[in-house]
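Support case: pyridoxal-5'-phosphate complex. Customer-provided input:
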Amino acid sequence: MATARILEFLRREKPEGPCLVVDLKVIEENYEAFARTMPGTRIFYAVKANPAPEILALLAGLGSCFDTASVPEIEMALAAGATPDRISFGNTIKKERDIARAHALGVKLYAVDSHEEVEKVARAAPGAQVFCRILTDGAGAEWPLSRKFGCEPAMAESVLLHAHALGLVAYGVSFHVGSQQTRLEAWDVALGQAKAIFNTMAGHGIILQMVNLGGGFPTKYLKQVPGTGAYANAIHEALTKHFGNALPETIIEPGRGMVGNAGVVKAEVVLISRKHANDNTRWVYLDIGKFGGLAETMDEAIRYPITTARDDDAREPCVIAGPTCDSADVLYEKTPYPLPVTLSVGDEVLIEAAGAYTTTYASVAFNGFPPLKAYVI
Ligand SMILES: *Cc1c(COP(=O)(O)O)cnc(C)c1O
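Agent response - structure generated as follows:
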């Protein structure tokens, strides 16, 4: 959200062009809330949400671990001060030579969801710890991660057995309940499946250690969302329900929930127009759109709070679009967005809760527009 520090920064610096401003104090509060409410759980920040070096350095200093998906992300986490034992290679889709590079850098923890990937890890990172990701349906998530990642629980058992047979440490089970998950119960089903896998593996003499509870912790956009404490309680209850007092080691991988509410995009109204003489709906074109960093407006999935200096005036629904020459570059049209009737070309608008999944999604120079600038304060 637009904190006093962010507003003061924008007033003082008047940065030209669309930009993201991130307040590190908010990220520190988010980290402390995860650490306080889930005291026994290690926190692996999902680097892809916002890999700004200042954010990684802050989190490394606070004691965070890092969930990475590529060698450059591993290198960024190391450069920020994390030791390799605090880094997981959490992507289930890795080149064998990238696994070898991660192994050489000292990374010991790898995600898999197939026999083929286990074989790559066994060859390129002998002796490593692997956890198998299981499928979830993503129900209740505003940005579901669908069927691309994970395998059915019965296959996970066979994947972990294969890992063990190849000399890897079959370490645990992971899942991701879908990003921006607002159903507190979402973890319950997956934890029941995880426990069943622990039991089967124990029957084979293999004691799994860890459940990776993934991300999914939300940011408040327009609708209210439960607080971190409510998630911690629901997860703790589900863990106790399924594992009793033999609780496994647990980790979480928050991305959006760590940085989403810490950033605000400053943008500018470029054009306000209509499509015919008695058109009731204004088209408001901003200097940022889907290709400038707001990719999560795809299918209008994420609906950002948008504020202006004219918010005391009456509002009417508008179509909001970006500045590029691609007709896909429309942010909100199926559900038009209420903006002040007095809104004018040149006005500044603030797109709130935009700290996650914005700079990393910005295109390099589509139509010559530079990637989204970021200021971390
Ligand atoms: C993207 C991702 C996350 C972060 O998800 P959020 O919903 O943003 O918290 C965590 N784990 C994995 C494996 C991911 O790919």
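Residues 186-203 form the longest helix (18 residues).

Case will auto-close in a few days if no follow-up is received.
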